[in-house]
Specification:
Strand content: over 45%
Order of helices and strands: EEEEEEEEEEE
Helix content: under 10%
Structural class: mainly beta
Shape: globular
Number of strands: 11
Oligomer: single chain
Radius of gyration: 13 Å
Length: 125
């Protein structure tokens, strides 16, 4: 079993930055990829960024390319999401997720086995 604990959400003004963290506990050696997802009220959960934990390959949704950066610290079993130039439309609950497979269809919610509890990000104009 793997537990994921997110932190770092909050409220910022448009143009500001936040860094989210996701620490993995338990059988984290079984994880091959992790991702950040978000869900705004009334909308479906969507993939924001993904990373293959083996070779560090990263993937991004078009809406965040050039503004968000996903990274990992293997020694700490932690994945980060650095969010810059935040926009009001980035407002959502952000979730960290982990899966056993890597690469293909990183954005697919159903392919992730473990999920964190979520952390709220609110961007005001």
């Amino acid at each position: 079993q793997v537990q994921l604990v997110e932190s770092g959400g909050g409220s910022v003004q448009a143009g500001g930055s936040l860094r989210l963290s996701c620490a993995a506990f338990g059988y984290s050696y079984s994880i091959n990829a992790m991702g950040w997802f978000r869900q705004a009220p009334g909308k479906e959960r969507e993939g924001v960024a993904g990373i293959d934990t083996g070779d560090g390959s990263t993937y991004y949704a078009d809406s965040v390319k050039g503004r968000f950066t996903i990274s990992q610290d293997n020694a700490k079993n932690t994945v980060y999401l650095q969010m810059n130039s935040l926009k009001p439309e980035d407002t959502a609950m952000y979730y960290c997720a982990a899966r056993l497979s890597n690469g293909v269809r990183w954005w697919e919610v159903s392919s992730y086995k473990y999920w964190g509890q979520g952390t709220q990000v609110t961007v005001s104009s």
